[in-house]
Each structure stands twice: as C-alpha cells, then as structure tokens.
Amino acid sequence: MTHSTVVAVLADEQLRQAGIVAMLDGLPGVSAHRFTSDRRSDVVIADLTELTRATMRPLIVSHRAHGSAVVVITDGSAEADLSALSAAGAVTIMHTVEATPDHLLAAIHHAIRHDAPASSRASADLSGQLRSVRRVRTGTQTCPGLSERETAVLSYLSEGLDTVQIMKAMDISERTLKYILWGVMRRHSLRNRVHAVAFAIRAGVL
Which of 91, 106, 136, 188 is most buried by a 10 A CB count? Predict the structure, then answer.
C-alpha cells in the first residue's frame, strides 16, 4: 500500500473496539478509528457477537454509501444471516483466535483488492468461511496460558483498579494496556473485563 489505509472498527463491546483500534494503529500503512456509518473508510473491521441483519444494519448503510469492504471477526457460536453479511460488503470472516496483527493486516490488504462477486457467489464464499470458523471454535476448547503481563493486568482488574491506576501500577501507556487486554480477550473469546476476570479465576490464575 502506497498510502495510509483508513480502517474503521465496529464492535459490540467498547473495550474490544478500543483494543482493535490500538492494535491497528501500530500496523504499517494503517490508520484506524472507531466506526461511524457516515464516515468513509477503505475497510471496516467488525467484531460482533451476533451476525444478524439488525446488528449489521450500520454496516449495510455504510457499504451502500461508501462501498467499504468488511472483515468480520466472530467466535462462530451464533447463527449468521448470510444475505445481511453480503449486503454489508463482508469479504472475509475470521475466528477471534485468528485475528492476530499479521492476519488482520493480510485481511485488510485482501479487502482493498477485493472485487465484490455476484450475490449468490458471495453468499457461498461466506458460508464456506463460516464453516471454517466453526471448525476453529471446535478445536480450541483448551486455551493456552497467560503471559506475565496479561496475568498482572487481570489481577489488577480483579482488585477493582481502573485503567489509569493499572497504567500507573505497570508503568505502561493506555494504548499498551488496551492491546494487552484485547489480546487476552481475542485468544479466549472473552466479551468484557468481567468475563476476563472470571476466566482467569476459573483457570486458576488468580
């Protein structure tokens, strides 16, 4: 890419949205911001629990207005409306555990080059991707361990510390904290801070 690619991020959890924006801003040639349907972007990253026409309505509106291609991140546990995904401009669907910086950058490059196929072929492509996502979900029941920094962040969260207090305690920036949290939540399909702390307790980390 010879110019900065503008990427909008839509997520149904504010923390996940902030984490993805922070991570994308660190990638070469990418400028990320929170999604709004009236602001044009080259690509939209959508991290959604439910893939229904209602949850994707802002993406459909945006795609009609701006033609942006969409990369969807999901854990594959919910049913998906293929016609709504197609109408939203979805070109790639990936499992949350696969949404690493390298994979997202590759998906962004793919989305930029992607020519929208006919509706029937688009639905077939997306259906195949969803099946792959569900196979990943089946194969990831045992979660890998947490890093020292991830454990520290979860420990501070369990003690009731807020973002600023954790930043001071660990001597890290807000962007780094958001990236650490997003990494934990991405790998273990966690939805918010409470879910992350509960996961760490069940895993015997805290």
Answer: 91
Per the CB < 8 A criterion, the answer to whether 47 and 185 are in contact is: no
pLDDT of residue 169: 87
Which of 171, 170, 173, 191 is closest to 182 using CA atoms?
191
- Write down the H helix ranges in 114-147: 119-138
- CA distances to 35, 69, 103, 116, 122 from 132, in Å: 27, 20, 15, 21, 16
Q: SS in 3 state form for 2-54?
A: CCCEEEEEEECCHHHHHHHHHHHHCCCCEEEEECCCCCCCCEEEEECCCECHH
**Block means of pLDDT (10 residues each) for the chain, length 206 residues?**
82 87 88 92 92 93 92 85 91 87 90 65 75 63 65 85 88 89 83 82 71
Calpha distance 110→20 (Å, rounded): 18
Q: What is the pLDDT of residue 136?
A: 67
Give the separation between CA 54 and CA 58, rounded to whole angstroms: 8
pLDDT reported for residue 142 = 38
Among 38, 34, 39, 40, CA closest to 8: 34
